[in-house]
């Protein structure tokens, strides 16, 4: 456990989000589906800290993210907890946990997590847990998480209707609202900063385009076809985004009516605009196709709540930062410093007073999984020196901690943050 | 505008129907299939790659141009085979075992095909053994391995080792690429080359087969 401190984790987070320097850098691991930890790493961390040996819950089966329980959160010295949607990306509720042997590791999965394992070791999972439907994702042997299976019906240009791509976006149900209210109440009483994922406002997130939650997806569901459509079928894409935006704002309104300002920030969209060396579209395309909808959502949030708006986009995305700011995003993640044009000191200098960097703490493509603990420590300390001054920084690895990451490196990362923060384990 | 120019422009513009029509018209007019490849498709895909490098084009435009190029190649491929035309090189490409991501691999595959290579695309989640078998079956002289994930990029090393075990390592050049891959990693696992982008992969492939 960490030493007691004068201010709460929640105040620390809020201070950082307000671009004021808190007593120490707030630290997140596990509050969203893009700042999380692979279930195998969660299990190893629990062992490392000597916590109760119990199967870890896979709360996000698509990426096989493990739930960070309060005891582990305390042991790691984290400052943020997450509120998650009632259902997983595969459309079944995160309830009624059962044991599952995940390639030798005992974990817990929801009751409707239904799979078939082929002789090759490949695992297939079913939307809504319905094994009479075609599987919507596959985890090949050698991988540690699922990828969507493309189920693209034949496209008839004459009959394309944006409504076909909107089946998964509808009015929020009372069950969902009740779940959110319960989760927010529990999180609010924890003393941690609260990050919420409500769902429904990710415009064209390529992980969601194939509709892993649906049994019979219609519309444009093939990844390549979708990217091409952002160029050749803009009217269709606008049709989807316009309606999705209307539904999203209505749902956020109902959620806010229930929970008020009890969360600190909301993860609104995880659409990736960057690649390692370039971008998926030009800034002008972004401004034509995405910007109007982001602005409507963020404007509603800022006009009606105290929530801060969180945008995730991997890759080389510095070129979009001015547009993100103008669209009303407060927070960017994962701040992939290894991508082209994402040099940390330059980002901090240019955008540090206007964007909160939630991420950027350690590279998860090379240094964290393959480096030495000393290399990890050195990079973490350097990133903290760059990003911490003046606030506007929440320490997080650059995207989820991947399967196979040595626990010694994760501990080196945590120790370095705590060293920078001037706190120590007791 | 000649059929050659029309095909060139159709590929740059990503118009697959126009590309197919121009190809068909050129063949009907008696233009040699290899001429269409060397004077239309290769320079067109080079131009697409150049535009991608200078960020005039992005992934959607690349995908559209690749589709147009493929529409032309569908017509040309059997004619090239019948005429005994020799490709620049013969490359076996795939995303390595455990990895289902194929957008980057598909772009490289298209750029290589548009660059005059014969491409044997094995798809995604390809085992080391399948790479080895495909090289043997197709008498390929180049292998291109792709990975998006840190978890799966280690399969690149396993694949290269499989070529060593099969006694084929000296027969083929092996190039690697993908988001987490670096020149340093390529060197560490004994690859012959590292391509940072789809466009750069063509130049690298040409260099490797010429060596």
Folded structure, characterized:
The complex is a heterodimer of chains A (426) and B (211). Chain A is α/β, with parallel strands linked by helices and 426 residues long. Chain A has one domain (9-38, 75-93, 152-421): TIM Barrel (Alpha-Beta Barrel). In chain A, 35% of the residues lie in helices and 13% in strands. Chain A has helices at residues 9-17, 39-48, 70-76, 174-188, 223-232, 234-259, 283-289, 291-304, 321-327, 344-351, 367-370, 373-387, 407-421, and strands at 56-60, 65-66, 80-83, 98-102, 105-109, 115-117, 123-125, 137-139, 147-148, 193-196, 265-269, 308-312, 331-333, 356-358, 393-394. In chain A, the strands form 3 sheets. In chain A, strands 3-10-11-12-13-14-15 form a 7-stranded parallel beta sheet. In chain A, a hairpin with a 5-residue loop joins strand 6 (115-117) and strand 7. Chain A is globular. Chain B is α/β, with parallel strands linked by helices and 211 residues long. Chain B folds into 2 domains: 3-83, Orthogonal Bundle (Methyltransferase, Methionine Synthase (B12-binding Domains), Chain A, domain 1); 90-210, Cobalamin-binding domain (Rossmann fold), CATH 3.40.50. In chain B, helix 1 (3-13) packs antiparallel against helix 2 (16-28) and helix 1 packs parallel to helix 3. Chain B starts with a helix and ends with a helix. The chains are: A alpha/beta (426), B alpha/beta (211). At the A-B interface, helix 5 of A face helix 4 and helix 7 of B.
């Amino acid at each position: 456990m960490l030493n007691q401190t004068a201010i709460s984790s929640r105040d620390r987070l809020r201070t950082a989000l307000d671009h004021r320097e808190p007593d120490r850098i707030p630290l997140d691991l596990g509050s969203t589906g893009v700042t999380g930890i692979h279930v195998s790493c969660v299990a190893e961390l629990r062992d490392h800290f000597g916590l109760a040996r119990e199967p870890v819950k896979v709360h996000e089966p698509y990426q096989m993210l493990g739930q960070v329980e309060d005891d582990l959160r305390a042991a790691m010295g984290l400052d943020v907890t997450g509120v998650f949607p009632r259902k997983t990306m595969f459309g079944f509720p995160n309830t009624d946990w059962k044991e599952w042997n995940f390639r030798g590791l005992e974990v817990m999965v929801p009751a409707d997590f239904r799979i078939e394992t082929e002789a090759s070791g490949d695992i297939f999972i079913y939307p809504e847990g319905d094994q009479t439907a075609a599987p919507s994702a596959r985890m090949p042997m050698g991988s540690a998480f699922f990828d969507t299976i493309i189920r693209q019906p034949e496209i008839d240009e004459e009959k394309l209707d944006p409504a076909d791509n909107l089946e998964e976006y509808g009015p929020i149900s009372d069950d969902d609202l009740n779940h959110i209210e319960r989760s927010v109440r529990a999180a609010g009483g924890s003393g941690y900063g609260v990050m919420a994922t409500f769902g429904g406002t990710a415009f064209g997130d390529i992980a969601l385009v194939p509709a892993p939650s649906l049994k019979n997806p219609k519309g444009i569901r093939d990844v390549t076809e979708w990217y091409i459509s952002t160029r050749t079928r803009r009217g269709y894409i606008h049709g989807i985004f316009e309606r999705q935006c209307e539904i999203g704002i209505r749902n956020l309104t109902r959620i806010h009516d229930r929970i008020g300002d009890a969360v600190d920030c909301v993860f609104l969209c995880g659409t990736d605009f960057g690649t390692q060396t370039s971008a998926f579209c030009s800034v002008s395309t972004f401004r034509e196709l995405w910007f109007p909808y982001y602005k409507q959502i963020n404007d509603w949030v800022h006009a009606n709540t105290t929530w801060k708006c969180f945008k995730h986009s991997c890759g080389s995305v510095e070129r979009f930062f001015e547009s993100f700011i103008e669209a009303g995003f407060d927070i960017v993640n994962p701040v992939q410093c290894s991508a082209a044009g994402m040099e940390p000191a330059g980002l901090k200098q240019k955008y540090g007073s206007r964007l909160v960097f939630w991420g950027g703490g350690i590279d998860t493509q090379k240094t964290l999984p393959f480096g030495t603990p000393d290399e990890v420590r050195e990079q973490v300390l350097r990133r903290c020196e760059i990003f911490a001054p003046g606030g506007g920084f929440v320490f997080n690895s650059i995207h989820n901690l991947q399967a196979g990451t040595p626990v010694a490196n994760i501990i080196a990362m945590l120790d370095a943050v705590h060293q920078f923060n001037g706190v120590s384990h007791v | 505008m000649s059929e050659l120019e029309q095909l060139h422009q159709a590929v740059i513009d990503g118009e697959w129907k126009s590309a197919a029509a121009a190809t068909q018209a050129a063949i009907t007019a008696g233009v040699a299939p290899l001429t269409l490849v060397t004077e239309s498709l290769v320079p067109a895909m080079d131009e697409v790659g150049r535009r991608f490098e200078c960020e005039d084009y992005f992934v959607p435009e690349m995908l559209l141009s690749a589709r147009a190029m493929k529409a032309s190649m569908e017509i040309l491929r059997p004619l090239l085979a019948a005429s005994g035309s020799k490709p620049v090189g013969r490359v076996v490409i795939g995303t390595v075992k455990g990895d289902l991501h194929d957008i980057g691999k598909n772009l490289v595959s298209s750029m290589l095909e548009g660059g005059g290579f014969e491409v044997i695309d094995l798809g995604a989640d390809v085992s080391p053994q399948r790479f080895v078998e495909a090289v043997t079956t197709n008498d390929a002289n180049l292998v291109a391995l792709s990975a998006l994930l840190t978890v799966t990029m280690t399969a690149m090393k396993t694949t290269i080792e499989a070529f060593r075990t099969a006694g084929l390592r000296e027969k083929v050049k092996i190039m690697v690429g993908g988001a987490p891959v670096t020149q340093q990693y390529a060197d560490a696992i004994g690859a012959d080359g590292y391509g940072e982008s789809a466009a750069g992969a063509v130049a690298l492939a040409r260099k490797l087969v010429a060596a």
